[in-house]
Amino acid sequence: MNRINRLNPRLANQIAAGEVVERPASVLKELLENSLDAGALRVDIDVEQGGKKLLRVRDDGSGIHRDDLALALSRHATSKISRPEDLEAIASLGFRGEALASIGSVSRLELSSRAADASSDTGWAVRAEGRQMEAALEPCQHGVGATVEVRDLFFNTPARKKFLKTERTEFGRIDDVLKRLALSRFDVQFNMRHNQRTVHELRPAATELEQRRRIGLVCGPAFQENSVQVDQRAAGLHLRGWISLPAFSRSQADLQYFYVNGRIVRDKIVSHAVRQAYQDVLYHGRHPAYVLFLELDPAAVDVNVHPTKHEVRFRDSRLVHDFLFRSLHRELADIKPEVQAADQTNPDAAQTAPERANGQNFLPLRDFRPVREAGAEYRGSMQSAPAGSTQGAPEQYARLFSGDEEAPPLGYAIAQLHGVYILAQNKDGLIIVDMHAAHERITYERFKQALREERLKRQTLLVPLSLAVSEAEAECAETHRDSLLAFGLELERVAAEAIVVRQIPALLKDADIEQLARDVLSDLLEFGASDRLENRQNELLSTMACHGSVRANRRLGIDEMNALLRDMEDTERSGQCNHGRPTWVWQSMTELDKLFLRGR
Ligand code: ADP
Ligand code: MG
Known about the structure:
It is built from 21 helices and 24 strands. It has 600 residues and is an alpha+beta fold. It starts with 8 loop residues before the first helix and ends in a 5-residue tail after the last helix. The structure holds adenosine-5'-diphosphate and magnesium ion (MG). The site of magnesium ion (MG) has 5 residues, from helix 2. Adenosine-5'-diphosphate binds next to helix 2 and helix 4.
């Protein structure tokens, strides 16, 4: 047996580096976080060979005092916290004092800086090169701020270098890091070059318009056009940002940015809440896209859970889950047809229109807005202009063009196409509705409504089902007894580790009860909430709605079509069918004109 000896600092740092510095992208993350913590408003990033050769981050932040430069490179040295209490409410991105030491132990690192309060007008630089941790101070030219240059990552740890991927892959990850941070701070300018070529030039974005632009640059124009803004507060929590319209879903969960107090995180509670909010409007297996910022009291969240700080722990995760779910669910329900004169209000439409004219001409409408009140008003006006007959139609068109503010967003039906689509015209152009999809959604929402209002019908099992469960699950069943009962599920704890299922929701009488009960309990344990009962019920309702809706190839009269349009305007989530496909698309007159090269 070897005797115990104390690790030398270099080895200790390299071990720590194993946690923090996985690849060039993780280096960039640490450097950018430091710049942001230093209050930088402009950051310039230079990358060579996917960051394997060089990563340089220069900022205009507060800089580092000359006498602190060497210290900054040593382990457990930080300016961000000093007392145990500080750990309780961390407001900076960094606080562990490990990053520079770790990076310096596996690369050739140079740190140069001039502190904002420095009296001299030169900067100072220190170097670390793997083994040589003793840093010598040298004067250099530097403006206020700091530059960290990291060369030859893993030059002294060949085993780790082997794990690096191609230049392209590594750069892709670097790019992801930049995007994530660029979305977290709209007020900061980010410039990035790769192999001397400019990749990003993101100017500070103060206004909402500029912020949307940055979103477009980072997440792509499609997301920018197919997302709505969210802004909700409750119980000391503030959620803001952008979420995708359900018709714009992705096959991967790759366009999902969630920030807690400015820090990007991946969190089970969060993704579960978002998924749950979307589950009713998204096609199975598709993923929503979002950029969301949650602000809450720093003391209500523990960020010291993981060395890379990608995870957080909420003190009250139930509250956070509920708040997220409710906020997003509400926003999604509010997305209803309202045609905006998009070409005038959307500053980017001018750029995107030609693109659309080339290929996909008909897109799901992008400017959805909540119109609950508008829908109600519309009802009233319907009575004064009965839509009960085809003869009524010309009169309605007259209203359309008389500048009547109350003209319905989806306009009036003019024809049915091949028994599948309804063609309608509104103030601004042409609307095409997938009749079956639209009707299915309306029926489904009605079913759900009925279900909510009637309270749930329960069915008592002739033979109660006994289940062996863990003690935690049994306890959980006991605690949530009443809320489960409200959903129609009666679970009774009969022993320390046993429960009995006595009643189930009548709608689910054909389901696998044992599986359902177990799934519900495990959800409750993990998330403090279970959507399974509701999901299963919604699945059934959805199936019923599908069978109960107008099939294709049924002739509809003009008035029937108009009634359907009005119902759509009045129905929550009517922009997508129950499978998340769009129920209608829209083409403005301007865009039609472009197709025919009119007015050129
Ligand atoms: P941490 O960020 O956890 O404090 P680091 O090892 O990343 O630890 O950085 C150590 C210290 O160096 C920081 O606390 C900060 O005072 C200083 N520092 C690092 N980068 C910068 C920068 N770009 N501008 C100003 N100070 C910096
Ligand atoms: Mg740091």
